[in-house]
C-alpha cells in the first residue's frame, strides 16, 4: 500500500515538474538519422517496384516466349497485350504492399515484421488476382501467375534482406543510427541501454537520459553503463529541451508510471511538434509481434496481449511447412547424407546413426537421430567426465570432449551430424525451427517457467542455434527458447532458417 502511494506521489511530482519547467518553442533541424531513414525508405520502395516488374516480365517471357513477341502476344479474354497484364498485376501488387504497410519506416531494417508484411502482401495480391480472374473470367494464364508470384515473393524477400545487410553493416560502423533520449529511472533504463548497445543492427544509439527529479542519478552529470558514459540531461521536466540538446530522433520512455499519465500525454504533444518519434517500453519481456495490440477503452490506451499462437490452425500450418521443406531438403542433400554416412562408417567402428532419447511436445519422449560423432558407448562415459563440464547450468558441454571421433569433430563443426533429424521432422516428432530438444534428466530439473519450452515441438535449429549455440549461458538459452515459443510466426521461422546457414558456415559455438 505504501509503495503504491509512493508511486502515485512520484508521478504527481513528475507531472508538476514537467509542467512547471516546460520550455517554449524550440527551433530544431531534423537530425541526420531522420534524413537517412527517408532516403532508405525511398530506395526500398524503388527496389520493390523494380523487383515486382522484373518478376512479372520474366514470368510473361517464360510462359509466352522471350523477346518483344512474348510481351505483345494477346492474352486473356479481352486479348490485351501481355505487357498490359504485367503492368496491371504490378499495380495491384504495389497496392497490396502499401496496404500491408510493408514500407512503414518503423519496421524497415529490423525485426521479422517487415518480412511478414511482404509475405502477406504477396499472398494477398495473388489471391486478389485469382479472384478477379475467376469472377471476371479474364482468363489470365495460370502459368503466368504461378511463375510471377513464385519468383516475385522470394525475390522481394531477398531484396529486403540484401538492403538490411547493407544497413546493418553501416550501423555496425556507427552510421545510420537514430539517436535516442531515454526517460526513466536507472532500474528500467539500464537494461534497455544495454540491449540497444548490444544490438547495433536495430539502429538505435542512446545519446542521453533524463531521470526522476528525486533520484540519486539526478545529481550526477553522467550515468555509466558497462563502461560507457551516458549524459544525464536533467529530470523529466527537462525532456523537451534535452531533445534539442542531444539531437535525438527518438524518445524512449521506460518509466511511464513514474512520469505519470498527464505528463506522458503532454510530452507526446510536445514531441509531435519536433518531429520526434516516441517509444514506450512496456513491462512485458520477450512478447512482441502480432500478439501485442493497443485497445482504447474509455479514453485509456490499454496494451492487449493475445495468447501464444501455437495451437489449432497455426500448429497445422507449421507442421505442413516443416514437412514440405524437410522433404525437399532431403531430396536436395541426398549426396551429402551419403557422403557423411560413408565418412562415419570408415572413420570409426560402430553404427552410422545414433538414436538418443529426447523429450518433445507435451513432455512425450521420442528418439532423435544424428550421425554418430562419438565413440560407441559414449553415454556410459558421461559420469566420469562430469568434473570437466564446460556447459552452462543444466546443460552438459565440453569443448574438447575426448569421446568425439575425428570424423565427428568435423561433422559437428559444420552441424552436419544433425542432418538426419530431417527424418524426425517428417515423422512429426520435431520441427525445423524450435527450442533445443532436451534430455530427460534436463527436463526433470526444469523450473516451472522453463517447462513452457515443451509447448511446441523441439527444432533442428532455433534462436539458440543462430545466437551463439554452445557459447550461450543457460539463462540466455532459456530466454531465447521462451521468446520463440511466445512469438512464433512463419516469417520468424524463415528468418531463423536463413540465419542458420550463416551460423553453420561461421562455426562459432559448435562443439
TrEMBL record:
GO terms for cellular component: membrane. It is found in: Membrane. Pfam families: Bac_transf (PF02397), CoA_binding_3 (PF13727). The keyword Iron does not apply. InterPro entries: Bact_transf, EPS_sugar_tfrase. The keyword Protein biosynthesis does not apply. Keywords: Membrane, Transferase, Transmembrane, Transmembrane helix. Residues 318-505 form the Bacterial sugar transferase domain. It is a multi-pass membrane protein. Its main location: membrane. One of its GO terms (molecular function) is phosphotransferase activity, for other substituted phosphate groups. The chain crosses the membrane at residues 43-66, 78-98, 118-136, 142-163, 325-344. Belongs to the bacterial sugar transferase family. This is Putative glycosyltransferase.
Amino acid at each position: 500500500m505504501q509503495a503504491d502511494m509512493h508511486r502515485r506521489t512520484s508521478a504527481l511530482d513528475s507531472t508538476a515538474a514537467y509542467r512547471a519547467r516546460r520550455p517554449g518553442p524550440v527551433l530544431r533541424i531534423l537530425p541526420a538519422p531522420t534524413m537517412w531513414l527517408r532516403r532508405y525508405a525511398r530506395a526500398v520502395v524503388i527496389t520493390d517496384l523494380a523487383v515486382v516488374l522484373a518478376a512479372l516480365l520474366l514470368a510473361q517471357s517464360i510462359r509466352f516466349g522471350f523477346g518483344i513477341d512474348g510481351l505483345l502476344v494477346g492474352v486473356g479474354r479481352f486479348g490485351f497485350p501481355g505487357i498490359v497484364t504485367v503492368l496491371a498485376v504490378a499495380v495491384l501488387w504495389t497496392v497490396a504492399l502499401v496496404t500491408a504497410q510493408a514500407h512503414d519506416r518503423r519496421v524497415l531494417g529490423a525485426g521479422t515484421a517487415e518480412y511478414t508484411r511482404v509475405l502477406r502482401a504477396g499472398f494477398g495480391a495473388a489471391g486478389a488476382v485469382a479472384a478477379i480472374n475467376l469472377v471476371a473470367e479474364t482468363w489470365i494464364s495460370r502459368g503466368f501467375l504461378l511463375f510471377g508470384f513464385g519468383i516475385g515473393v522470394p525475390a522481394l524477400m531477398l531484396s529486403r534482406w540484401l538492403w538490411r545487410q547493407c544497413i546493418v553493416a553501416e550501423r555496425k560502423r556507427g552510421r545510420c543510427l537514430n539517436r535516442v533520449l531515454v526517460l526513466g529511472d536507472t532500474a528500467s533504463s539500464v537494461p534497455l541501454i544495454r540491449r540497444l548497445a548490444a544490438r547495433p543492427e536495430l539502429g538505435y544509439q542512446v545519446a542521453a537520459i533524463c531521470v526522476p527529479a528525486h533520484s540519486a542519478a539526478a545529481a550526477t552529470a553522467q550515468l555509466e553503463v558497462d563502461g560507457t558514459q551516458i549524459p544525464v540531461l536533467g529530470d523529466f521536466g527537462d525532456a523537451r529541451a534535452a531533445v534539442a540538446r542531444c539531437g535525438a530522433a527518438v524518445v524512449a520512455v521506460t518509466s511511464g508510471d513514474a512520469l505519470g499519465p498527464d505528463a506522458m500525454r503532454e510530452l507526446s504533444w510536445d514531441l509531435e511538434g519536433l518531429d520526434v518519434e516516441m517509444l514506450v517500453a512496456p513491462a512485458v519481456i520477450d512478447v512482441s509481434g502480432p500478439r501485442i495490440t493497443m485497445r482504447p477503452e474509455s479514453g485509456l490506451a490499454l496494451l492487449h496481449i493475445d495468447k501464444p499462437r501455437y495451437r489449432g490452425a497455426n500448429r497445422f500450418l507449421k507442421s505442413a511447412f516443416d514437412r514440405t521443406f524437410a522433404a525437399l531438403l532431403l531430396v536436395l542433400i541426398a549426396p551429402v547424407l551419403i557422403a557423411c554416412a560413408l565418412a562415419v562408417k570408415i572413420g570409426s567402428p560402430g553404427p552410422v546413426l545414433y538414436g538418443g532419447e529426447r523429450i518433445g511436445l507435451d513432455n512425450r519422449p521420442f528418439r532423435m537421430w544424428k550421425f554418430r560423432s562419438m565413440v560407441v558407448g559414449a553415454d556410459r562415459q558421461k559420469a566420469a567426465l562430469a568434473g570437466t563440464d564446460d556447459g552452462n547450468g543444466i546443460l552438459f558441454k565440453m569443448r574438447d570432449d575426448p569421446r568425439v571421433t575425428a570424423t565427428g569433430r568435423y561433422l559437428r563443426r559444420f552441424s552436419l551430424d544433425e542432418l538426419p533429424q530431417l527424418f524426425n521432422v517428417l515423422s512429426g516428432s520435431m520441427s525445423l525451427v524450435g527450442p533445443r530438444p532436451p534430455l530427460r534428466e534436463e527436463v526433470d530439473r526444469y523450473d516451472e517457467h522453463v517447462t513452457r519450452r515443451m509447448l511446441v515441438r523441439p527444432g533442428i535449429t532455433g534462436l539458440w542455434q543462430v545466437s551463439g549455440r554452445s557459447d550461450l549461458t543457460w539463462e540466455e538459452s532459456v530466454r531465447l527458447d521462451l521468446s520463440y515459443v511466445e512469438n512464433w510466426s512463419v516469417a520468424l521461422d524463415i528468418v531463423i532458417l536463413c540465419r542458420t546457414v550463416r551460423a553453420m558456415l561461421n562455426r562459432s559455438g559448435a562443439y
